[in-house]
Amino acid sequence: xxxxxxxxxxxxQLLADAWQHAAVVFQCMVAATLIGVVIGVVTYRSAWxxxxxxxSASTVLTVPSLAMIGLLIPVVGLGVPxxxxxxxLYGLLPIVRNSVxxxxxxxxxxxxxxxxxxxSRLTRLxxxxxxxxxxxxxxxxxxxxxxxxxxxxxxxxxxxxxxxxEIFRGIASLGSKNALNQVxxxxxxxxxxxxxFDAAYVVVGRLTIPRGIRV
Length: 215
Fold this sequence. Notes:
Blueprint: H1 3-43, H2 47-61, H3 65-76, H4 80-90, H5 92-104, H6 108-116, H7 121-151, H8 164-172, H9 179-208, H10 211-214
């Protein structure tokens, strides 16, 4: 069976796996973004706290993804829970780091002006600092998403959702007539999803970043 014949024969299953893969990455990115931005907001004023937060998030990336999921299985079981926890943790570093960099890069004169017109710290953060820090934060989100697209494939080890199941099935049946087709279809599917997500972030950037800031 050729690769194109395999795609035609298994397209329903592949689309279902692709949808699950995209959904779990999107949900984990939402969680990682919320947690990462909050950590950045809490720590960016202190060099020591920001360094500790960045170092802690960096440490997570030193743990191999297969080992991370393996360690989580006895605690939370198989399936979605270890996948979501692992992906959320792996997605933190670029977002935390870029949140700190973005917030520190806000022009102090703009912060002083916001203070001068009586803005509270929360109002200033929401209306001045975070909007100006949004471009580097969005870049961090894009980097995290590309990482998680690949890491999510390992979730199949813990019976997690996504295209990794196709890849693992192919590896487990090496030598069979469709083994290469399975690995190739799973891999190409992940690449296509990564490109689609990145294109979506470009659109989000154009809609949410003022032209002057983009320039």
